[in-house]
C-alpha cells in the first residue's frame, strides 16, 4: 500500500495516453487471467479486481461484491459468452477510471492505493515513471 495524491487530471491524463494506459490494462489483464486462456471468468475477475481497482479488503464480502460483478458482466460481456475478453476488459477499465476521476474532481485527494492498482499507475504516469 502507498499514500498518493490524485485528482481528476491524474486519472484522465493517464487514460487518454493510449499507449501507457493500454499497456497497463494489458498487464492487469494478464495478471488476472490465471489460466492463460485470454478471457476472464467471473472467478478470475473477482480474485484480482479489488486489488487493481484499489477497492480495499472489506469490499470482498460476497454479498457486497456479487452485485458488482453481475453488473460488470451484464454491461461489458458484449458477446454474452460468460467471460470478459481483452477488448471488453479495456472498455470496462476505461469507463471505471473515468468515473473515478470524475469522483475525485479537481481538488487533490489523499488516498491509500495498492501498489499494483491502476490508480497507482495513473500516479506514476503523472510523475513520468510510466
From TrEMBL:
InterPro entries: EF-hand-dom_pair, EF_Hand_1_Ca_BS, EF_hand_dom. SMART domains: EFh. One of its GO terms (molecular function) is calcium ion binding. Pfam families: EF-hand_7 (PF13499). Keywords: Calcium. It comes from the Eukaryota. Residues 20-55, 64-99 form the EF-hand domain. SUPFAM superfamilies: EF-hand (SSF47473). This is EF-hand domain-containing protein. It comes from Salix udensis. The lineage of its organism: Eukaryota, Viridiplantae, Streptophyta, Embryophyta, Tracheophyta.
Amino acid at each position: 500500500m502507498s499514500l498518493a495524491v490524485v485528482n481528476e487530471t491524474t486519472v484522465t491524463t493517464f487514460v487518454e495516453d493510449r499507449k501507457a494506459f493500454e499497456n497497463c490494462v494489458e498487464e492487469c489483464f494478464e495478471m488476472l487471467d490465471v489460466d492463460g486462456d485470454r478471457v476472464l471468468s467471473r472467478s478470475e475477475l473477482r480474485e484480482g479486481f479489488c486489488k487493481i481497482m484499489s477497492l480495499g479488503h472489506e469490499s470482498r464480502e460476497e454479498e457486497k461484491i456479487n452485485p458488482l460483478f453481475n453488473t460488470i458482466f451484464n454491461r461489458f460481456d458484449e458477446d454474452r459468452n460468460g467471460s470478459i475478453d481483452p477488448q471488453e476488459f479495456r472498455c470496462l477499465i476505461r469507463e471505471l477510471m473515468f468515473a473515478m476521476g470524475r469522483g475525485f474532481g479537481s481538488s487533490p485527494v489523499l488516498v491509500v492505493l495498492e501498489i499494483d492498482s491502476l490508480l497507482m499507475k495513473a500516479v506514476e504516469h503523472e510523475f513520468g515513471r510510466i
